[in-house]
Amino acid sequence: MPEHEADGSPHTATPQVADFLRRRREQIAQRWADEPLFRTVFTVSRDEAVEAGKAVVDALAEVADAGRVEDPDAAGFSGVREQLARMGTARSRAGLSVTQVSSELSALWPPVDNLLLADLDQAPPEQVRTCAITLSRLLGTLRLVAMQTALSEGQALIDRQRMQLLEVATPVIKLWDGIVAVPLIGTLDSARSQVVMETLLNSVVEQHARFAILDITGVPTVDSLVAQHLMKTVAAARLMGAECVVSGIRPAIAQTIVHLGLDLGSVLTRASLADALAYCLHQLGTDIVDATPGGANLR
Amino acid sequence: MHTAAGAEARLPIRSDMDLVWVRQHVRQAAALIGFGLVDQTKLVTAASELARNTLVHGGGGQMEAARVSEHGTEGLRLVFTDTGPGIADLDRALSDGYTSGDGLGMGLGGARRLVHDFEVVSSPESGTTVRVTSWVTRPPRPREES
Amino acid sequence: MNESSPRHVAGHVPVLRLGDVLLVTLQGDLYDSAAQQLQQDLAETIAHSRVTGVVIDISGVEVVDSFLGRVLAEIAAQAELLAARTVVAGMRPAVAITLVELGLSLPGLRTALTTEAALELLDRPIVTPRSGGRRQERP
Known about the structure:
Chain A has 299 residues and is an alpha/beta fold. Chain A contains 12 helices and 5 strands. Chain A has a 5-stranded mixed sheet, sandwiched between helices.
């Protein structure tokens, strides 16, 4: 994006504001260091907070120089983006809501404004007004930048948690030497099916499992996309040298599958997890025998 | 934060040796951008299909790789260009089972299934350009930090 | 970590003979020409010696595209014609998922988790190669 020329109006005050920020850099940073946003994030020493404040002041001055006080994408912000993200994340981790973080950012404005007014004590009111407006726009943009970065950090956190949840919800259990199973509970969407497929296939390798059982007893519905994923999992397992059995297809799901015209022909299915296990054991050369008096019946 | 450097490249596709380079570059770039192992493998495989297409049917050409970012999502874009005879029947070339030479007829159609965005422009005058993009759909695994 | 030359590039594939079984280990990234050479070499070796089985270990292969997939399928098919059975062993999960997504599920191919499992499989009496599944239903 090309740098804008310092536009004449309506921010004629940008050079003055930039000058002011550079002149008062130390004082602004000192005052910010006492604000919760800096004080609670930069806890090593007060100097650390002051340095962080100076970095932000420098960024603001640079943005003002470029005359881009209302542009959150201004090059000047790029240097402090990471720091702002860190501050935002730290505050939301401390339990603050977005609104609270936002108001802490707003709290940065009064100390700067006071300094500006003190500096412009003798200036004509018109100049004071334009300077104050320019400064408030600049700080408004800073808040926007900080919120943007904080929100994207927040989104990343949500994504990570969602991912962890998916993994937690997909426990692979070793049922026997060479047999792993994953009991699926809850709705299967495309993202989760993907995780299930990867988790199951990885454990096939780790456990040297010749058989993998996908138990869908706890899955309320199966649509064509999920069925497709099941079939892909089966095909991928086969390529790896393992056999995949799908168990626990409830009558309602069986009906849906028939209604949708889905062909699960290539998928080996069993009514229950127990049946699937018995099948796999038999294939491995082990059979379950009832030790009841009166004889051993093959299960 | 990663820098853009490392993902960007322009690689010639003139021999099967170059295919190896293409695969290795795409692997490294995808890992750098944060693709998971399965998605890396899908991208590398798609790149291999398309590069071979460029080599076998386009008489050679090049691949350009670039890191892209949209709405906060990171991605990898690969553009394969050749100045060959172009693809006469694009719809057919994209349909499954179609093959005009090597492979099992999975070249273009198969590659399309391995990426998120797929775009092909072809004419007898200007050759063929295939542009594919994949996005880091899933967040990177949480790093081991306490 | 920038390598100045492609890493793990195999220009020639070693073939090891274990009794009447050929053990082929593919490692890293393979030139197309090396894969084709392997296909030819194997055909000749099988034809000229009493080999009854071929095990191709691909646990060290990170990418199988349609070209390599085709080579594997053709090796298996030509071995079959020469009365030898082929087992592809050790395909990684990511590779398997990608092949399926690519539309290449190689239905005629025998597979095993590991080389050991493949050798064990070859030891067993001949069963028809599974078409769409190693299906041995219980009676």
